[in-house]
Amino acid sequence: xxxxxxxxxxxxxxxxxxxxxxxxxxxxxxxxxxxxxxxxxxxxxxxxxxxxxxxxxxxxxxxxxxxxxxxxxxxxxxxxxxxxxxxxxxxxxxxxxxxxxxxxxxxxxxxxxxxxxxxxxxxxxxxxxxxxxxxxxxxxxxxxxxxxxxxxxxxxxxxxxxxxxxxxxxxxxxxxxxxxxxxxxxxxxxxxxxxxxxxxxxxxxxxxxxxxxxxxxxxxxxxxxxxxxxxxxxxxxxxx
Length: 240
Known about the structure:
One of its GO terms (biological process) is menaquinone biosynthetic process. The protein has one domain: Rossmann fold (3-Layer(aba) Sandwich). It is 44% helix and 21% strand. It has helices at residues 13-35, 39-49, 68-72, 88-100, 139-149, 169-189, 192-204, 209-217; strands at 58-62, 80-85, 107-111, 124-130, 150-161, 221-228, 233-239. α1 packs across α4 (88-100), α1 crosses α6 and α6 runs antiparallel to α7. The model has no long low-confidence stretch (mean pLDDT 92).
């Protein structure tokens, strides 16, 4: 059974995820940086750094949210970055941020379903995602769509939470995720479900080698996995 934000609601995981992010959109950036002690900024820099050699001209950022990874992607000097997300609330925050930074000529944000992308096959030299694939209703379908829109030889870079396995980080991580994070998340965002869903969805996500197997299954080559910060987060890369 899929992990969903609102267990008593009848909607699909996709609709519940959109509702959840609409609910917390105004506080999302602050909570991201606060609850990760700013490490999320380093993780995004590390992920985009893996695109430096290939210099992609067009980048698609899946589940772009408020656009932080799309903005970071400008470091590799692409012609255009396109971000899509199912949450209009998150996109509104992202568009305002991009406008204030004077980046609207380089970044476009669209409403879209990551599992049914509105783009033609072989459209992008790179596809990125930060903390988004975990929220897919159908993970394999979403990854297959990323594969479809990527040009042959193009690269995906996926940043996602993972589960530390070594003592004592595993125990500390589990305690923080289950006991500390939901409390702060509820107080600041006013949505208890959002920050209860986070640790549950991370726990259910097939991370590490299991995720590489799914990337292999949908057709990606040279699949690689790089744990960050004691395994709290991981970067996955692959080539079409």
